[in-house]
Amino acid sequence: GKLGRYPPWPGKIVNPPKDLKKPRGKKCFFVKFFGTEDHAWIKVEQLKPYHTHKEEMIKINKGKRFQQAVDAVEEFLRKTKGKDQASSHNSSEEKNRRNSSEERGKQSAGEEKRKASLSEGKLKKGTGEGKKRVSSVSSERGSKSPLKRAQDQSPRKRGRPPKDEKDLTIPESSTVKRVMTGTVAGFKWPPSVSEPVKDSDPHFHHFLLSQTEKPAVCYQAITKKLKVCEEETGSTSIQAADSTAVNGSITPTDKKIGFLGLGLMGSGIVSNLLKMGHTVTVWNRTAEKCDLFIQEGARLGRTPAEVVSTCDITFACVSDPKAAKDLVLGPSGVLQGIRPGKCYVDMSTVDADTVTELAQVIVSRGGRFLEAPVSGNQQLSNDGMLVILAAGDRGLYEDCSSCFQAMGKTSFFLGEVGNAAKMMLIVNMVQGSFMATIAEGLTLAQVTGQSQQTLLDILNQGQLASIFLDQKCQNILQGNFKPDFYLKYIQKDLRLAIALGDSVNHPTPMAAAANEVYKRAKALDQSDNDMSAVYRAYIH
């Protein structure tokens, strides 16, 4: 397959280990993939018949490992053909489960009793709980691509899947009932890609954007389920492709990690890197912020240059383009520690021109560069639930796997340097504009004699309901503007997003209006408060 393309993979539905909980609210099967020892929960709508799509998939996937997997399927079918369809279940609890499962799944039983195939196409919503979801896989213009065709042809109905193998019997034979093909959940790289990312936490989602000569882009998802084992005391191992995760943990890289910048975001990131067993050396402009992390096991670096020279991969997360440049180009800066093979990952939210310049100077010294700005806030950083947007050195992105899994719930690889910066500014432009609109609505409600709490209740019952909306409204109603995302930084992002629009002569009137309100809030000394303090720009 091409870079960023993952073949469907044959597998069979099996019973999950007894101590492995099924993700709540998700209609999925526990699948073992042929030709590997990989297992994963797979959503019902991602399954399709093996025989129906076998020839098509074989034409698409010429890889040796895929052919070996198909051979294993055929061998399995030959060996088990004619066996009795029903499995014996001694446990009355299992019988009860099966019966209730049959009742719940009547509407979709006919489809669920067939062999299934996981389409290479769109993973609609992830296999995790609550907020930890796999985002959709899409192709903007590739309507004739195998991904799109596979998705469109999937006839699955949305019923609860049976929990036992016996529930999966079909008229054809008991052997066919559990055979499926699908995109391997976890890190299953096609043979043309160098090495798979090792030791992957199955709760983490990776998305890869492949840009070819055509304008179409293609996202590929490598699923990581929510921590289904985090409350388990057993030693059940979830193996996804060449990765291993036990009880929701990850295997940290043996590379030495450096981290520069211990602000709202950096502090949570470093804490999670240390918790997951990484070896981390820290540096911050105000050294006293390092003390807490030294107590947690981090090492102290005296200068950015020293951290880079003593570590294999150095991350940085600072406030703005000027700080990012000073960190690299300034006295005892990152550049002075760069030697061939040294890796630098800039997680700051800056403009594309800045990050491109930094990439050029790093690479000119033989270093490797990745931009990886993060979408989130202090709470999400502390919880290890950030969304990481990466671009640049693909191999370095893979090397950062365990680090990204420790700090985030999802990562996207977006291609060449500059893409992640642009995407991050657009995301924050939308977020900042929305925040200003929320504040405008709450203040208009107040001055027209309407209850702000009732407005929030109404919004929370409608299509705009979200964690962000609720939290920011609560901040305003309680007058609590403790920073979760500094107001000065969202204003900076709006400013940079407007400049991005200027560079391509694209109008950004909504962002421009919001930017003016944030500038007003800054003039009212709200810079170091949370972005929700933009509310105060409306009440003066």
From TrEMBL:
Specify residue ranges for compositional bias: Basic and acidic residues: 79-132, 149-169
Region (Disordered), start-end ranges: 1-23, 79-176
Q: Which UniProt keywords apply?
A: Chromosome
Q: Which domain of life is it from?
A: Eukaryota
One Pfam family name is: NAD_binding_11
> What are the annotated GO cellular component locations?
chromatin
Q: Which family does it belong to?
A: Belongs to the HIBADH-related family. NP60 subfamily.
**Protein's UniProt name:** Cytokine-like nuclear factor N-PAC
Say which species the protein is native to. Cepphus grylle
**Gene name?**
Glyr1
